[in-house]
Design brief:
PH-domain like; rod-shaped; PH_domain; four-stranded antiparallel beta sheet; PH-like_dom_sf; about 55% helix; coiled coil; three-stranded antiparallel beta sheet; Pleckstrin homology domain-containing family D member 1; alpha+beta
């Protein structure tokens, strides 16, 4: 299950925030604004800003004066380390456990991250195609409804014209009856 997280940004002189999700053995990160969307929609965006494979990684707490509750993610194949910070000691403990658990897969499996992203992108394209088909169908239905509305308005207009003609006819008939009555008298 995806798990949301909003720690400080790695290796930045000033603090910036990212929204993190652990998906299987990968740490996906997004801009902070994605958190609200995730909480509202209950599903995660398949186009993260980046992916950190956790397989075979060493995850440990790190004391940083400028960054409390920091965590360091390292691997022999990484160029440098990834440094994140939680917002509290409780969150730091939770995230250390989850990150360490997720890092127990092999590095070889972690390298399947690219394949996972391609799969997610393919799913995204399929969803976009389905969305476009739905929108096209919706447009057709909207056009049909507009046409029906125009036809209904035209019928109402004709009905009003006929009603006016009927009233005129009835008035003429009434006048003729009155004239006939006068003639009878």
């Amino acid at each position: 299950e995806p798990h949301p997280f909003s720690p400080g940004c790695p290796s930045f002189p000033t603090t910036c925030y990212r929204f993190f999700i652990i998906k299987e053995s990968f740490l996906l990160y997004y801009s902070e604004s994605e958190k609200k969307s995730f909480e509202t929609n209950k599903y995660f965006n398949i186009h993260p800003k980046g992916v950190i494979p956790l397989g075979g990684c060493l995850v440990e707490a790190k004391e940083e004066p400028s960054m409390p509750y920091a965590m360091k993610i390292s691997h022999q194949d990484f160029h440098g380390n990834v440094l994140l910070a939680a917002e509290s000691e409780f969150e730091q403990t939770q995230w250390l456990e989850m990150l360490q658990e997720s890092g127990k897969v092999t590095w070889k499996n972690a390298q399947l991250g690219e394949a996972m992203i391609k799969s997610l992108e393919a799913q995204g394209l399929q969803l976009a195609k389905e969305k476009q088909e739905y929108l096209d169908k919706l447009m057709e239905e909207t056009e049909e409804l507009c046409l029906q509305r125009e036809q209904r308005e035209e019928l109402e207009r004709l009905n009003q014209v006929l009603e006016a003609e009927k009233q005129q006819f009835e008035e003429v008939v009434q006048e003729l009856r009155m004239e006939q009555e006068q003639i009878k008298r």
